[in-house]
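Friendly challenge for the regulars: who can give me the structure tokens for this chain first? No prize, just bragging rights.
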Amino acid sequence: MKEYNLVKNTLDQIPNPNANAKRIVGLVKEGGRITGYQLSDNSIVEKQQAVDMAKQGQIAGVGIAHRGDTEYLKSIPDGSENNNLGNLPSVSPQT
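First reply, four minutes later:
Bragging rights claimed.
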């Protein structure tokens, strides 16, 4: 629980997901940097679009943090390592 509270404190916002919210199932990376996400409906969204969707409750299991002026998504700790964003597989961007 202590770890959960510590991570929660690093998040700027923890949106309440809608009943039909999607989950992030893969990371789109370019040059080792995350540029987008694959969602549970197999759609691919860009990083900023995913942040906006999460703020609107359309993506579950993530909170919003920032580094400088850039917002990004972080996993909300739930005791499972399998669904942490850093542990998700990389996927190719759809063309």
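Residues 2-91 form one domain. The radius of gyration is 13 Å. Your move, everyone else.
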